[in-house]
Design goal:
Length: about 400
């Protein structure tokens, strides 16, 4: 027997369904019917198919939004870099080299420690309204450590990304091209079965555009989708390369050139903006306005990692994007939900149209606007995943 649940008494429902109002597909005084974990119907509570429901719940005027889709995290790691953050806030610059200290701690951790940490993070994300999230490897950087990072990540999400090309590990410091050989050879062989995506940190101090092209091409040949970290610390060729190779996502884009915006507009590559990074490294925020005005598709993601952005809060990212990146509240909410789904090339999440997974968040607030209006306040009353 199918199981049908009706949530009624919703003060404000965001669906992204063009059948409803405006760009958010907004319905006031709304209800949502889920059947077997999928959205069956949304609309005004007055016309809800009450008779079809096995269970009825009352949201008592609360706002309901699609679950957040966090398209960029690095949650497989051990160790702590609070001291690095503290020094940065006292004037030290951020350096990609800090990644190596997390690599050492991650290699030294047992599977059990990494698994516990991942499951704690998965709960932390869920409690804050995130219902789909991507997880990258990249703190192992040996065949065995990258393989186990992805194997463990797969236990908490289907959206796993092989990031063996995060930085060149210390043992390969003077022979980076040999490390690239390892990444495209035995490491990719071991990791591809546990990954949906491949990513490269294309940046001075990490991997250059030629190395990036080689690694991404090898991943594509193995059937992995492409993602790129580009132009985080300075301008570079990574964004153009991501577009050229048809990457699903190019993330950071803190330092944008005219030719980058031209390449992105009209492409299918989604830009992942990661305001937690600029917040925690004191780099300037990326020019979201320019991207949006050029018609580029934009996602907001946490980039949760121990170095550059140790937040898992999508609400925080929305608040910063609205306050400091000139995104409107609807644009930021869209980027944190539907935009994340587009970045992961998923059409079953990030919205509440009929047929979507019944992944949604009941807010302890009358409107989605409160996500930006009440920064830092925990507003997630309930996270529903697959109707449960
Ligand atoms: O996305 N840019 C590269 N990787 C991470 C930072 C990792 C770290 O500092 O540990 C990022 O910002
Ligand atoms: Fe990242």
């Amino acid at each position: 027997m199918p199981r049908a649940t009706l949530l009624t008494g919703i003060g404000e429902l965001v669906t992204f369904d063009p059948a409803h109002d405006g760009p958010l597909g907004l319905v006031r005084d709304a209800a949502i019917l889920s059947v077997d974990g999928r959205v069956e119907w949304t609309g005004p509570a007055g016309s809800a198919p009450l008779g079809d429901a096995d269970e009825v719940h009352d949201a008592r005027g609360a706002a309901v939004i699609p679950g957040f889709v966090d398209s960029h995290t690095h949650l497989v790691f051990a160790g702590d870099r609070a001291a690095e953050f503290e020094a940065r806030m006292a004037g030290q610059p951020y350096s990609a080299g800090g990644i190596r200290s997390t690599v050492a701690a991650t290699r030294a951790a047992s599977d059990g420690e990494l698994r516990n940490q991942l499951s704690r993070f998965a709960s932390e994300l869920r409690a804050q309204g995130t219902t789909t999230f991507e997880v990258k490897s990249g703190y192992g950087l040996t065949v065995g450590d990258e393989e186990r990072s992805l194997r463990l990540a797969r236990e908490v999400t289907a959206e796993t990304t092989f990031l063996g090309a995060h930085v060149v590990p210390p043992e390969y410091a003077d022979r980076p091209d040999e490390y690239v050989d390892l990444v495209v050879g035995p490491m990719l062989d071991a990791c591809a079965p546990h990954a949906r995506w491949i990513d490269v940190f294309c940046e001075t101090g990490a991997f250059d555009p030629d190395q990036t092209r080689r690694i991404l091409t090898a991943g594509a040949e193995r059937g992995l989708g492409l993602r790129v970290h580009a132009s985080q610390l300075g301008p570079g060729a990574g964004i153009a390369l991501a577009v050229e190779l048809g990457a699903a996502a190019v993330d950071h884009c803190t330092y944008l050139a005219n030719r980058d915006v031209e390449a992105l507009s009209g492409s299918t590559t989604v830009v992942g903006l990661l305001p937690g990074v600029e917040f925690s490294t004191r780099h300037p925020y990326p020019d979201a306005r320019r991207l949006l005005d050029a018609g580029v598709r934009v996602a907001l993601a946490s980039d949760c990692n121990p170095g550059s952005s140790f937040t898992s809060s999508m609400a925080f990212c929305i608040a910063v994007a609205v306050r400091d990146m000139e995104m409107t509240v609807p644009e930021a909410l869209r980027a944190a939900t539907l935009g994340g789904a587009e970045s992961l090339r998923r059409d079953d999440v990030g919205h509440l149209r009929a047929g979507a997974r019944a992944d949604f968040v009941v807010l302890d607030a009358p409107s989605y606007v409160h996500l930006a209006y009440r920064p830092g306040v925990p507003l997630v009353a309930r996270t529903v995943i697959g109707g449960a």
